[in-house]
Amino acid sequence: MRIIMAHGAIWLCMVLLVGLGSAADVPFVFDQSTSDVAGYTSAQIEQDHTTSPDLAGVPIVSSPSDSESLEIPITGGGSGSGTQEKNIGELKRTLDARVEPDNPRVRDEAVVLALKYPGEKTIDQIVSIYDYLKNGDESKKGWGYVSDPRGIDDFMFANQTLRNGERANCVGGGDCDDFAILMSALVESIGGTTRIILARNNSTGGHAYAEVYLGRINNSDSGNQVEAIIDWLREKLDADKIYTHIDTDTKDVWLNLDWGPDEKGSAHPGGPFYQGDKHIVLCVRDKVLKTPLRMPEISNKPPKLISLTADKLSPQEAGAAITWTAEARDPEEDQMLYRFYLNDEPATKWINEDMWTWTAEDYDAGENQIEVRVRDGKHAGAEGFDSRKVASFEIAEVEQTQPVNWSEDDRAVPEESSVAMDVTADVDDRIVSEVETWSKTFGGAENDWGMSVQQTLDSGYIITGWTSSFGAGYNGLWLIKTNDHGNKLWDRTFGGAECDEGDSVQQTLDGGYIIMGNTESFGAGNNDLWLIKTDDHGNKLWDRTFGGADWDWGSSVQQTSDGGYIITGSTFSFDEAGDRDLWLIKTGDRDLWLIKTDDQGNKLWDRTFGGAGHDEGNSVQQTLDGGYIIMGYTESFGAGSSDLWLIKTDDQGNKLWDRTFGGAYGDDGSSVQQTFDGGYIITGGTSSFDEAGDGDLWLIKTDAEGNKLWDRTFGGAYGDDGSSVQQTLDGGYIIMGNTESFGAGNNDLWLIKTDDQGNRLWDRTFGGAGHDEGNSVQQTLDGGYIIMGYTESFGAVDSDLWLIKTDAEGNA
């Protein structure tokens, strides 16, 4: 569409809008004089619009209905003169088809631009897209302006604009409606929300520009995040003023993405508005929910130690000088500092040198432990470190220590294990009880993760997760069997050329194993649920995939009393009302969706639960009455942006009742178990009821009808959450969670033991300087606990599966 401008150009630019615009959508400038805008009244926002000299000639935004028409001037040159009418509804539909954020070419372009910055839907990713379109990069020129044919409105498809740009060695070309369409397509393609505004001026012509949704001030959707983003933009772009629209009713904030320069001659997101007699929002894709943007993720990749080596072989005699050399790498080539330790005592301060010479003394006789730690030079904490390596070295002993002679009836301590002992006060200090403890890692040169563990009938353990180090594809589903000491007996990988992973495993009545996983290599769509049955040695007997043309995930599986299987997860392929539905699957034989399978994994029936938002199932268990209890989270129902969602069904998957738990912010549920009294114990995370930080671990106890009896939160100043819960034999509860508030690194495994009322008895953290995460816990036959997760602090390289066995007090 074209509108005559004073210099002869004619533009129509459109913006994608999610939801209808508002007559109270007023221009607003954030500058040095604005602070705490979240506390502004509607009248204050409107007053700033009318009194600001920067907004003179910029009207309030209006939204015409689909039935209205626009009169558009027609240029001369053989194409006629006068005006032509455009129906608003038809115009919206035309532009909606042109934006195509799901086109593979558009999606690829957006993903490459977004991957320059970590996170999802962050403001720095939006700035990256804007800068690329406006200015190009080292290999391509920026946007090239080309007018439409005279008298003809030509709207190019977003992917067509990109193809034209490739041929001309620029990012794209066309007039402003083509620029806005491509801008909207790229932003929408990475999950942002955009709209296009037509700025009409009866005297000078017209213009159009795109906007991106920042969020809602003074609201649980984004809170003070919007003003934090504005402050970040001003500092990042060296801009004194950031131009936005604010809806005076909802406090929704939209950021201007026009290409006009500011007072300093710089074009950037949040630049000045085009003046006009009328600004009109053209609504496209108005069934999509508005998604707030996020602040940039602070990313400083830590260094990693590769090796610690000595220049002499062990053993050596006292007086020998042994030089230790550490090899470390920093992905960002930051300065690295080293610190060496001898037998847990510091041997050096933090130094720049990667070498240390140890002159052994007589008192060093015996086995010694040498450790080196490395940290990024950017770290402020003198005791903080990012990676460590430990080595042993023997100095010839001066005097041998006689071993302890155990009597024949003393129990032997398993090799490579530690033992927590209750010791009597008799003369011989004999062991009267013992619980074995140990820690094992499994992995190779790439990333490997552990998701689920269960003790098996032979007192060993079965583990599932995924591996990038072994198998056929990018990720392979990984099944590992260990003995009771955690030593690997065998392992199996399952998968194809793409990403495949295991999320839940259980030993079955026949001694084999059932695995719930996810596959991109097989099935009907982008990702399908993957059910695999093996014999007692992990050899596959059969497998089944469940899913449609879109993305579908499985999270939890349990064998049921009839020998079949119950599964929960989520589906994009078969949701009835929204973006993602909770998907409950049990073994059965119909084409309806909650899936039930028989003992061979053949589907019997299925059900979906959900509304217009994201809804997901994370844990399922058969209950004593033969029905099922499901734990997940919902964005469709409840009090806040997401709530824990507890659903009870009968034995056919028909919902009997459901309960939501949550507040004004994001809350989610990870695990549920029926308790001895017929009620339920739940764990997850809450941002609504955390007392001090970015989220707390949440423990909830309900009665048999899902009514809350009590709840407890655990956490500190940073993000903490719960991933797995089980009632213990003493009637209390054991919780596996993750903590950023406590422990040694940026995220540690967090084991919490409570009494039957959820009062904490003790807690333990496990981890090092890297990111370590716990996903599963179970009480073991000896009264201790088995934990499954992954570690970036220990093991081989990158991340490894981490299996930890503790005593009854959580010590390992």
Automatic annotation (TrEMBL):
Annotated spans, Disordered: 62-86
Gene3D superfamilies: 3.40.1350.20
Lineage: superkingdom: Archaea
InterPro entries the UniProt entry points to: Papain-like_cys_pep_sf (IPR038765), Quinoprotein_ADH-like_sf (IPR011047), Transglutaminase-like (IPR002931)
Domain Transglutaminase-like stretches: 121-214
Coiled coil location: none
Signal peptide: none
Protein name, entry field: Transglutaminase-like domain-containing protein
Organism: Methanothrix soehngenii (strain ATCC 5969 / DSM 3671 / JCM 10134 / NBRC 103675 / OCM 69 / GP-6) (Methanosaeta concilii)
